[in-house]
Write a structure and sequence with these properties.
mainly alpha, two-stranded antiparallel sheet, 4% strand, Sugar_transporter_CS, Solute carrier family 22 member 3, membrane, transport, glycoprotein
Length: 515
């Protein structure tokens, strides 16, 4: 009996055809990174304080800057990051009846009075130190008591990821990788434009769920497809390369955000690539492995012959008995197949746990860049550069010493770096930044490794479903991460790092005990 692996070896396990397909499909990872962490820019919360109509009138009359008006009229308060200007209350007074003059915006008399005057809420909205730029936070005034709505923006994306990865994973195993991929990208295009044109925040959250429904599932289908088109020995390489383009997207994102200051137009830019991916219909074949798992031998053989032709190879083996070595009596995947044997149950539970912890820590560290108070564009770019070596370190280590040790080492580094960073004083800025970057590198390695390990451990007939189901824990982590980061940071800015470090070290114990 001739297996597909035998035929693929003759056709070229990783020839010109597969290189072309993998190169084209790697582009899918770039906009996925935009969507995954775009909240840092789309939902950026700038310095803000209560708008006072009287102060606004004085500012315009005196040609003061926003900062001049704030220094003269906004009281200071203690917060988790030290002494800052009050963001959620303003002085309850008539500024037109004070001695505030255009020539003396920082009058000693006024400053001495600020801490003793009565306060009131921001009944007239907020001023934002974000001139010329707009996030959905500034458009919908999602600050102070409504700040938690920002968490919902990212959480709703992960809800869409959660439902979509399971649904699209099932569709990809039942109806084919390419059909599901193309259908998903059409859906993403429509949902993405709806997000960009949402008339209010409730509509924005609804459309955000729909957007996430397609994005994650389409990305996972692409990952499975390219690993099925190459020989087993090349799966790790193409899988890591696919994820490396995600890190490339992380580098591109701050540049896009810098030159596109409006969050709605930024959303349009995030969506356009998915519409372009519909052209893959003419360039990418269906997975021969999937066709064999569905007993569509003739179609699988035609595609394999086309791959061989592009690779300038010829097939000489007997193709009459062609079969996929992983195909069993089950032709349609079902959820219970993931728990059918003790070995599969073990894989499913351990991989799910690792997806969860990796997602919480990875998303948390990236979103944290938006609340540190520095130059978010520069900080984000530096953190993206740190991610790039992760793929190369994985490729250098896993072929020589296996998966377990690099995976464990990456988690040790990430957890220790988070815990150490939390206790380095802000005065040691460069040391604090360097240790944080090392932690970012560690969690990136751990996250990338769990993805390709997931695809290696399941047979063809349930591979896409297995990856999709296990990665749902990643999405649950994504739902929790924004609340964990933003709400705990209000108490103490470094508190989320301690939680991230603890989670990562706990994951390490799971790896050593069970893998």
């Amino acid at each position: 009996m001739t297996t597909f692996e035998d035929i693929l070896e003759e056709a070229g396990a990783f020839g010109r055809s597969q290189m072309r397909i993998v190169s084209i499909f790697c582009l899918v990872s770039i906009p996925f990174s935009f969507v995954y962490v775009g909240i840092v820019f789309q939902g950026f919360t700038p310095e803000h304080w209560c708008r006072d109509p009287a102060v606004s009138g004085i500012r315009e009359r005196c040609s003061w800057s926003l900062q001049d008006a704030r220094r003269a009229t906004v009281p200071l308060m203690n917060s988790s990051v030290g002494v800052t200007y009050n963001q959620c209350q303003r002085l309850d007074m008539d500024w037109n009846a004070t001695g505030l003059t255009c020539d003396n915006p920082e009058s000693e008399l006024i400053q001495a009075q600020l801490s003793t005057l009565p306060m009131t809420g921001c009944t007239d909205g907020w001023e934002y130190d974000y001139e010329g730029r707009q996030s959905f936070v500034t458009e919908f005034d999602l600050v102070c008591a409504d700040a938690w709505y920002v968490d919902m923006f990212q959480a709703m994306l992960s809800v869409g990821f959660l439902v979509g990865s399971i649904a699209i994973g099932y569709l990809a195993d039942k109806y084919g990788r390419m059909k599901s991929f193309l259908m998903t990208n059409f859906f993403i295009g429509v949902a993405g434009i709806l997000v960009a044109t949402a008339p209010n925040y409730i509509a924005l959250l609804v459309f955000r769920v729909l957007f996430g429904f397609g994005v994650k599932g389409g990305w996972m289908v692409g990952y499975v497809l390219i690993t099925e088109l190459v020989g087993v020995e090349y799966r790790r390489t193409v899988g890591v390369t696919y994820q490396m383009f995600f890190s490339l997207g992380i580098l591109i994102l701050p540049l896009l955000a810098y030159f596109i200051p409006n969050w709605r137009w930024l959303q349009v830019v995030f969506t356009i690539p998915y519409i372009c991916f519909l052209t893959y219909y003419w360039f990418i074949p269906e997975s021969p492995r999937w066709l064999l798992s569905q007993n569509k031998r003739n179609e699988a053989l035609e595609i394999t012959k086309a791959i061989a032709k592009e690779n300038k190879k010829t097939l000489s083996k007997n193709t009459e008995t062609l079969t996929d070595e992983n195909t069993d009596s089950i032709s349609t995947a079902s959820f219970m197949d993931l728990f059918k044997t003790s070995k599969l149950r073990k894989f499913t539970f351990i991989l799910s746990f690792n997806w969860f912890t990796s997602a919480v820590v990875y998303q948390g560290l990236i979103m944290r860049l938006g609340i540190l108070g520095g130059n978010v564009y520069v900080d984000f770019l530096i953190s993206g550069i740190v991610e790039l070596p992760a793929a190369f370190l994985i490729l250098l280590t896993i072929e020589r010493i296996g998966r377990r040790l690099p995976f464990a080492a990456a988690n040790i580094v990430a957890g220790a770096a988070c815990l150490i960073t939390a206790f380095i004083p802000d005065s040691m800025f460069w040391l604090k930044s360097a240790v944080a970057c090392v932690g970012r590198l560690g969690i990136t390695m751990a996250f990338e490794m769990v993805v390709f390990v997931n695809t290696e451990l399941y047979p063809t007939v349930i591979r896409n479903l297995g990856v999709s189901v296990c990665s749902t824990l990643c999405d649950i982590g994504g739902i929790i991460a924004p609340f964990l980061l933003y709400r705990l940071a209000v108490i103490w800015l470094e508190l989320p790092l301690i939680i991230f470090g603890t989670k990562t070290e706990h994951k390490l114990c799971k790896i050593y005990v069970n893998v």
